[in-house]
Amino acid sequence: MRFKACNTIAVIGMHTAACSSAVDSSSGHTMSTTTKTNTTMATATAMTRGQRASVQQQGCAKYATQRACGSSSAQRNYTCAAAAKAQTPRTESTYRLTPSFTPRCLLLALLLCFTHALGLIQLAQAASSGVTSTEAYFNGSAYLRLLTPMPIWDHSAISFRSCRGGEILAQQYNKNSFVITVLSDFLQVSLAGPAVIGPNNRLDVKLPYHLLDNHWHTLQFKYEYGNLYLYIDRTSLVFANSTYNSQFLTNQDIGNEAAILILGNSFSGCLQDGPGLLFINGSVQNVVYGPCPLSTGPCGDHDTLMLGQDNYCSNNPCMSHGQCIPLNDGYECRCTPRYTGKNCQIDNGSPCARNPCANSGNCTEDVRGDYQCKCTTNYSGRNCETEINVHPACQPNPCLNNGACIVAPGSTKVECECAKGYAGARCENDVDDCASQPCLNNGRCLDLVNGFTCDCRDTGFTGPNCQTNIDECEGSPCKHGGRCYDRYGWFICQCPDGWAGETCEEPTNCKTQQCLNGGTCVNKTIGFYCQCAPGYSGELCQQSPPCPQCPIDSECIGGKCICKPGTTGPIGHCLPIPPTPPTPPPTTTTTTTTKTSTTTAAPP
């Protein structure tokens, strides 16, 4: 939830100006007030808030004067006139006080006004502590109620990360509901209500996607070319149109402007807002804002949270030139031999140039700036500093890859002490440093000797382990004034009217869109608009004429209450249509024909 304290402070300023206008007139019973309004602030403040501030300004002056001076018409003349004119910016006016307006009255009015302003200051302080993050954690009992419903006929998107799942979104109006639920084996989108055709007045669409894997996934709804598309991550499918799941488009209640939208009810995990579903208003119940606190890695039996913990190593402060050790108040870098400094930022040249390998050992440097010594037969150790008294069993040099051959006293059994990065009875195996899956977010792991590297190309992430999200919006990928929303691994463009496509690169017109319910499409210079038939409204004429409250046995179609499918009769007394009696089978008549053969004798 975001609060904009500047708007509230602007209201306080207007209250103070209205109240201080009374002080300037106490000596001469004449007051000259100059009201100057900062037009920049007025432009930035929403119109509805500005109107509310104006009403509150009038109320403050009127309330204070009535309390201090009485409520007679003569005593209110000054305040009402002053409050009415103080609304107009950049004006200068002169007001005359009635003789009954005493200094005592002014003092009490001023006190009441500043008391009221103090309350607004406290409101502003509460507002300034509001959350600005677009991510939120829901613990299964938390929820967020937004004041603006999800636009069914436009572009909306929400991202989630979870191992448990639950109900992501529920929008309800007039006993009709639209619900999105993510479960272990499928994603379910449901429509329910008295007018819904289906078992128990429900329509459930189940999509076989496995999305509870503790990775971020994004759901988008877009209405284009007469189809309502559902995007699951970057895969799109036709979810509804005039002949398929059409009830999601024809149900008028779920898209009503007064619909109630609840996010995260009975959901365990993290949500991230997007186009049409911004976490900027509404009421909150136990929601924790900020970066998702779920620990990374595979899902387990229970969620592991990292609330309040700062991982100072998450941004790779050691620049891949050393090991980062997180501390309570910071971090420590243990640099490879080539580098020094707090962040291993100082390059001291190749460590092999300092000849660290003794006794004719051969030095090789890796990509991180570390080195390895390949020792001659009679020496071992990191720097080949330890002389080996070769046991006869070690003479054939059975240990591979610079492994050290060891024979215990009184034994003839050979054991190999392997160099870093190798394992096996004879150090014959290169250790698979990718076995632990160190590369995150679909990064590709490349095994090295005693190490690994992550290929993060085409993942949307960067860093040694592909752990840092790249903000694709910094490159302004959305064209024609589209608004960019950064996602984990990619981005979403919310296009302005007249444009569509992943980056708002495709113009929309009457060839690509269609008006519904008999509406006529008219092209504009950019985009199009629909001339709707009488009674219909909406961008695409998708909203039917309003109906009276239809009885439970009927539904609203075209502004009229019609009996539900399968029923007939007067409204309020719709009865099931009786089944048509089966047509009797045709009667089959069998006719037997007997042929008589007559033999005539030949004449003599």
TrEMBL record:
UniProt keyword tRNA processing present: no
Listed SMART domains: EGF (SM00181), EGF_CA (SM00179)
Domain of life: Eukaryota
Keywords per UniProt: Developmental protein, Disulfide bond, EGF-like domain, Glycoprotein, Repeat, Signal
Record's compositionally biased regions (Pro residues): 576-587
Renumbered residue ranges of the record's region Disordered: 575-604
GO CC annotation, single: plasma membrane
Ranges for domain EGF-like: 309-345, 348-385, 390-428, 430-467, 469-505, 506-542
Gene Ontology MF terms: calcium ion binding
Intrachain disulfide bonds: 335-344, 375-384, 399-416, 418-427, 495-504, 532-541
UniProt record, GO biological process: anatomical structure formation involved in morphogenesis; animal organ morphogenesis; cell morphogenesis involved in neuron differentiation; dendrite development; gliogenesis; neuron migration
Biased composition (Low complexity): 588-604
Span of domain Laminin G: 133-299
Protein name: Protein crumbs
